[in-house]
Amino acid sequence: MTEKELDCLTIPGFSKDGNWYKGNLHSHTIHSDGHLTPEEAVNIYRKHGYHFLCFSEHDLYTDYRSQFDCEDFIILPGMEASAVLFESKSSPFGKKVHHIHGILGTEEMQKQAALPLYNHMEGHAVRKYYGEWDGAGVAQELADEMTSRGLIATYNHPVWSRVREEEFIHTRGIWALEIYNYGTENESATGYDEARWDVMLREGKQIFAFASDDNHNNEEVEDTFGGYIVVKAPKLSHEEIVKNMLAGNYYSSSGPEIYDWGIRNGQAYIKCSAVRRIDFITGNRINDGRSILSKSLEETIQTAAYLLKGHETYVRAVCTDRYGRKAWSNPIFLDGWQ
Description:
CATH architecture: Alpha-Beta Barrel
Shape: globular
Number of strands: 22
Strand content: 25-35%
Helix content: 10-25%
Oligomer: single chain
CATH topology: TIM Barrel
Number of domains: 1
């Protein structure tokens, strides 16, 4: 990219028009290992200002749209599919697990599905392995199974799952990586997977990310209202929310808000709620990127910018507030502009 081309480079991070809709993509009820009924879960999320919720029961597909969809709240049908590596056939303890989430895709994805769509309350057979497995191959088979049924595939909580990077980072057909899981972070400090995301991005994989609760609502772990995405869409409907998720027209958060972000005249910029620091993270050269910190513990910042050098393969932003809560943009991919 020439210096003149770089100076003119402008790529918005969000669409110009639309409304913001907040939702949780990872949630469990009494139909797997959660403690709330679906109705109870809908009620508490709706009261807390959420606009959509996906029930990701373990190996059980659910579709509650006809029961709960209304003017200001919708359900995204889905499930969390499992493949488990056990120590041995005589041991009940799991060594590793792939949890690949399937969320019902767009109308076009449903029409193009190679296999029949799942029905409400349809079970999924857990893939079980003993002693050893081909981790990467198993992950690919599970992802293919989800996408062949018209579902969007995500890869959930790899740190909690005890998988090695090579067992999932090259999985094809994954829309997003769960980089923050509020439940597993509070359960066992295994909720942050941002570093794995950058490994994938720097390997050239174009993949988005999301934050979630993974709520089970027991009394032992605080796992509700701490991880979510905020989607920009023209209206609240399954089709529009999913289309804009697939386009990356959203941000993920555990607290802060992102108002605007993108590239303007060769400079990455962001506007957000009051935070302590803003980081621009890029690929693929050492020393690329920039961190902007408030001048004191009492001060905050709400804007920041990073002048691109012209060889970055992607750029993304993270905003961190005084409590350590974060908001993550999706990456803007720059390979085609080099």
